[in-house]
Amino acid sequence: MTTDITIIGAGLGGLTLARVLHVHGIPSTVYEAETSPTARMQGGLLDIHDYNGQLALQAAGLIDAFRGLILEGRQAMRVLDRDGTVLLDKADDGTGGRPEVQRGELRRILLDSLPADTVRWGHKVSSTRALGEGRHEVTFTDGSTTVTSLLVGADGAWSRVRPLLSTAAPEYADTSVVETYLFHADTRHPAAAKAVGGGSMIVPARGREIFAHRESGDTLHAYVGLAKPQEWFDAIDFTDAAAATQRIAKEFDDWAPELTALITESDTVPVLRPRFALPTGHRWDRVPGVTLLGDAAHLSVSNGEGANLAMYDGAELGKAIAAHPDDVERALTVYEQIMFPRSTEAAADGMQLNELLFGDDAPHSLIAAFIEDEETA
Question: How much helix, strand and coil, in percent to the nearest 5, is found in the chain?
Fold first, then answer.
């Protein structure tokens, strides 16, 4: 294969693509804005699904390495009412198809599986432009450039590659979450630790939600969700940790103290994470020499599928290129024609889940959905 392949973004999707290409003997170069693999914390737990994320890891030849990262018992899940009453409590019996791993560890095994010079760190993209005949130029913020005959945008929500294909831009999805961490939870935060249990905990209510899970090292990681406009959050000074914590906690002042402890007892400053989404069903006409994967292609309301879909996109694109090494446009067409409906379905599921979590009937609507899923499984 003579096509040079440039991937923008060393997240899970971009790295999976690079790894699957490498398995098939096809080189690629990944450009990443971060200065090193340890430049920032890589998020918390990910449940890797047997119908997409694990299939991607299988295609990457990393399924055994992945199994070595699984945190046992973390598929346990409970749903609580805001007064602390346990409404649903599912143990991890070892048969679930969504084992949990730390995102940073998953990224590490992908990085370790690639040739040392595959990822070029410290390359933040400032712009991209078409040169004709399927070739594209990428300009970085340091003024350097690269030209490629196949450009893949794996660069997330605010992709610099997307404008080559689409005028769509992410819009605020009506909710934001505030992220907190509680360390040494069993000894320092026992009430919150007992409420969360051994895996994950969801407390849904109209316009409000607390989701938390138990990570490695006795750490509780919580996402406190509020259905509020961006302007409401803009009025909070998140540089003043105490004031921001107090303001967020005020929205939950009628909740059980073991639940609000996930806000008030945080060992880290609260971090605001606004949620954005591309239009459901986002797609584009085939443009020679460029495509997208993951959030760059189909950012949606959070539904637990984002990382899995990005990895699956990367694997499927890599397999399509390997199957059509002398006809890249055919490979991109095959990939996109299957990716578009897949991502549309996932986005629709995310909107439905958001209603179950924040709608008028929460938490009972969520419980009913879980029971229905079990009955039809």
Answer: 35, 25, 40
CA-wise closest residue to 274 among 310, 301, 247: 301
**Cis bond before residue 229 (omega within 30° of 0):** no
Per-residue pLDDT tens over the stretch 161-208: 999 999 999 999 999 999 999 999 999 999 999 999 999 999 999 999
Burial string for 71-87 (b: 16+ CB within 10 Å, else e) reads: beebbbbbbbbbeeeeb
Residues 160, 153 contacting (CB under 8 angstroms): yes
H-state helical runs in the chain:
12-23, 53-59, 63-67, 103-112, 185-188, 190-196, 230-234, 241-250, 257-264, 295-298, 306-323, 328-358, 364-376
Name the nearest CA neighbour of 100 among 252, 228, 246, 214: 214
**Distance between CA atoms of 181 and 256, rounded to whole angstroms?**
18
Rounded to the nearest 10°, the torsion over CA 342, 344, 350, 352 is -120
Structure tokens at 330: 């055919």
Amino acid identity for residue 55 in this structure = L
Pairing verdict, β 171-182 and 45-47: unpaired
> Could you give the C-alpha distances from 98 to 177, 194, 203, 244, 344, in angstroms and in order?
23, 23, 20, 34, 21
* Cα–Cα distance measured from residue 34 to residue 39, given in angstroms and rounded to the nearest whole number: 6
The three-class DSSP label of residue 283 is: coil
Q: Measured between alpha carbons, how far is 274 from 287 in angstroms, rounded to an integer?
A: 31
Angstrom distance (rounded) from CA 362 to CA 370 = 13
Looking at the DSSP bridge assignments, the partners of residue 140 are: 125
187's tokens: 């000894």
Tokens read off for 65: 């390495």
Q: What is the pLDDT of residues 20-66, one digit of tens each?
A: 999 999 999 999 999 998 887 666 889 999 999 999 999 999 999 99
d(Cα 99, Cα 304) in Å, to the nearest integer?
12
Name the token pair of 60.
């990457």
- The encoded tokens of residue 36 equal 């090193």
Q: What is the pTM of this model?
A: 0.95
- Asked whether 219 and 182 are in contact (CB, 8 A), the reply is yes
Question: Which residues lie closer than 8 Å to 256 by C-beta, 6 or more apart?
Answer: 82, 83, 84, 195
User: What tokens were used for 230?
Assistant: 């961006």
The single-letter DSSP state of residue 351 is H
Paired residues of 171 in beta bridges: 277
CA atoms within 13 A on the CB side of 132: 0
